[in-house]
Amino acid sequence: MAKRIRSAIKKHRQSLKRKARNLNYRSRLKTLSKGIDSAIENRDLARSQSMLKTAIPAFGKAATKGVIHKRTASRNVSRFSKKVYNLSKELAQSST
Question: What would the pLDDT profile of 60-77 be if each residue is shown by its tens digit?
Fold first, then answer.
């Protein structure tokens, strides 16, 4: 029978906790991303802006926790902001 190493058992326990936390963050980010994309696709400016306001802190927190890289978070926030801005410009031009 193999000898059990306490440090290895603890490390494995920690890795399982981190994996669960990371899956939760990633799932939330994907849900927010899909929500913003669908709101933009449906040309719903108010909904896309409100979803963007919740997504920006979520991406920042995930980057702080090390779930995603900080540049990945920044890139995603930038792209979503640009899409929402362009949608607002389109809707403003079409209404005038």
Answer: 999 999 999 999 999 999
